[in-house]
Amino acid sequence: MTKVIQLTNIAKRYGAQTALSALNMQVPEGAVYGLLGQNGAGKSTCLRLIMGLLRADAGQIQILGQNAEQLSAETRQQIGYSSESMRVVPWLTVAQALNYTRSFYPDWDSDYVNNWLKKLELNPAARVFSLSRGNRQKLGLIMAIGHRPKVLILDEPAGGLDPIARRIFLESMIELLHESGTTIVISSHQMQDLERICDHVGVINHGRMQAEGELEQFKLQTRRLRVMQSQPLPELGLSVIHHLQGQQSGEWVVNNWSPELEQRVRSSVAAEYLQVDALSLEEIFVYHARQGVAA
User: Fold this and answer.
1) How far is CA 135 from the centre of its chain?
2) Domain boundaries, position 167
3) Which residues on neighbouring strands pair with residue 168, listed in sequence order?
4) Between 94-102 and 110-119, two packed helices, what is the crossing angle to 10 degrees?
5) CA-wise closest residue to 200 among 216, 189, 188, 179
6) Which candidate, 114, 188, 259, 278, has a CA 20 to 30 Å from the CA of 224?
7) Is 207 helix (H, G, I), strand (E, B) or coil?
8) Are 95 and 151 in contact (CB under 8 A)?
């Protein structure tokens, strides 16, 4: 599968502080890739490096087959970007801000933009300074997709949206994919939202990529095992990312679960003492975040 975005051994420091260290990341063509991580884990730095807004101290970044620091004008026009921290000239109207953005993109689709203004109930005559945080987020999204990009980078794009607007936003992501196969990388704290729309995920922890892969495989290979009556769990090649031992039971979270491993576990522990649970994306993320930096 073609990799639209590829980061190899990326390092980035801010003075004495390490933001990213030997980070690797691969985003397949047409994927909706959810980038997960705690505050300060390095998500925004990673996305800004991809966009060429920052320069890496070490490593290589490729996007659409080109070095991220040397993108041609044609390639840049195939990329859209929206961030929670983006700023728009406050005295412009929504329409003026969009017209200014349009001047950079020969393929700007005005009809498409007008449809999204109506769908997101954004008044073209409103001044940017008068917009709520949520409406500024909507404007940023429309500015990012008005030229129907091949790659869309979204850094906490729905942070200020109410539940109804967030649902519309999610539907817009699905619509973008169905229409043009846009590759989307999205960073968000809304795990349930990401679980709905993403097919690939990456977990950044302390500046490193701790886990990465297809979402369904990511979920299938992670299980929480509970063994009752303080019975030990035999060493069966389990990759344990969390262990908690109580007086009456033990809990293990493993991330290399498979039918073969399940068969070995069930043949080693009596059924009445064993409970195996599937986990949500949010639960898996929390366990990875607790684990610390992967070796």
Assistant:
1) 22
2) 3-217
3) none
4) 150
5) 216
6) 188
7) coil
8) no
The number of beta carbons lying within 10 Å of the beta carbon of residue 211 is 20
Domain end marker among 171, 200, 217: 217
Of 33, 42, 10, 75, nearest in space to 185 by CA: 33
**In contact, 10 and 207? CB cutoff 8 Å:** no
Distance CA 155, CA 52 (A): 14
The whole-angstrom separation of Cα 98 and Cα 176 is 19
Taking only the tens place, the pLDDT of each residue in 3-49 is 899 999 999 999 888 899 999 999 999 899 999 988 888 899 999 99
The C-alpha atoms of residue 250 and residue 258 are separated, in whole angstroms, by: 20
Residue 41 to residue 45: CA distance in whole angstroms? 9
Residue among 75, 159, 151, 147 nearest 116 (CA):
147
Summarised one tens digit per residue, pLDDT across range 257-270 is: 999 999 988 888 88
Sign, CA torsion 172/26/108/89:
positive
pTM above 0.90, yes or no: no
